[in-house]
Specification:
Elements: E1 2-4, H1 30-41, H2 70-77, E2 80-83, H3 90-99, E3 102-109, E4 127-136, E5 141-146, E6 149-154, H4 156-161, E7 177-181, H5 190-206, H6 214-228, H7 233-263, H8 270-296, H9 303-325
Antiparallel strand pairs: 1-4, 2-7, 3-4, 3-7, 4-5, 5-6
Helix pairs in contact: 7-8, 8-9
């Protein structure tokens, strides 16, 4: 059986500008990146969904894994995301839902995703989410959104993702899976998209932490670096993804979102955009310096970077609160 939503070509696919160009963080996390590419492929502007990025926070042992609220995807684009109950083989459900015109979002093992070559593919077992746009069960091929693009896989990777190799245990947990009803032309008209997004932004500004989250992150980070120096090198990559990347990439998207609002007439958020961009750049530098400190086991003065990040967050929040109260 064969089913597809958009008949995309992985070889010729070009990612959204949010995943290209001179950016400190070309990827954020699998869920946000997936939606950026999916919405763009369906003809929507993904910038409008980004108000949630201003409300990042440090959660004690990790930075918030930020995700677009599904209710806001429905408000902005008419995209309805629901959990898919897996009670039959996953392949059967995917074939059914894609044939019905729905994108299927499923948690899979990146070990079997060719687009992660050099990172996870055939080397590290790690959870990630893909959006299945096209499937051919006879040819054993799959087209999917993941991270910063659209990709294809086939053969043994197809069999492994769907548990067709005969090595699946009866007590193995089924993956968390969602489906999304996406139709062109639904949701808010493009002429009203920025205004609707601004309303959502006010709600997320109210959700911003009352106290600067860089401060507790700084305190925890210094202890973590000492601990990481005694761990396998792979541990640093997992740590950096859960902390520095979620912090830096989230605020870089926030800056990009505020710049997008500028192009739609909202000129009062320039200072917040600039501050978020500074914070994102410092987080990237911090990641490089931390990696060096962990590998070489040499002391590094992280204070200047954290000082800049703290000031940038305070500046961004002040600007946003002033705008929201005006």
């Amino acid at each position: 059986m064969k089913a597809t939503l958009l008949s995309l070509d992985a070889a010729g696919y070009q990612g959204h500008p949010l995943h290209r160009g001179e950016r400190a963080w070309l990827e954020t996390n699998c869920y946000v990146d997936l939606w950026i590419e999916t919405l763009s492929a369906f003809g929507y502007d993904p910038h409008a969904m980004l108000p949630f990025t201003v409300a990042g926070d440090f959660e004690g042992d990790q930075w918030l894994f930020f995700k677009p609220p599904t209710a806001e995807l429905l408000t902005l684009y008419g995209v309805d995301v629901q959990e898919l109950n897996i009670w039959r083989p996953l392949l059967d459900h995917v074939l059914t839902q894609v044939a019905r015109g729905r994108l299927v979002l499923v948690e899979v093992d990146a070990f079997f995703l060719p687009d992660t070559a050099g990172v996870s593919y055939r080397s590290v077992h790690t959870k990630t989410t893909i959006g299945i746009e096209s499937i051919d069960s006879d040819a054993r091929t799959l087209g999917y959104f993941h991270n910063a693009g659209y990709f294809a896989l086939a053969g043994d990777d197809f069999d492994a993702l769907f548990g067709l190799r005969g090595d699946k245990r009866d007590d193995q947990l089924v993956p968390y899976t969602e489906f999304a009803r996406i139709e062109r032309g639904k949701g808010v008209p493009r002429t009203e998209l920025a205004e609707t997004s601004l309303t959502l932004l006010r709600n997320h500004i109210a959700r911003m932490p009352a106290h600067n989250p860089i401060v507790p992150f700084r305190a925890r980070f210094l202890d973590d670096v000492a601990w990481l120096a005694e761990q396998p090198q792979a541990t640093f990559h997992v740590y950096a993804f859960s902390t520095l990347r979620q912090c830096g990439s989230g605020y870089e998207l926030a800056g990009s979102y505020l710049r997008w609002l500028e192009t739609h007439g909202e000129k009062r958020l320039f200072h917040a955009a600039e501050a978020f961009e500074t914070l994102a750049g410092q987080a990237k530098m911090l990641q490089f310096k931390a990696a060096r400190a962990v590998v070489l086991r040499k002391p590094v003065d992280f204070a200047p970077m954290f000082d800049t990040m703290e000031r940038a967050w305070d500046s961004a929040r002040s600007c946003l609160l002033g705008w929201a109260s005006g």
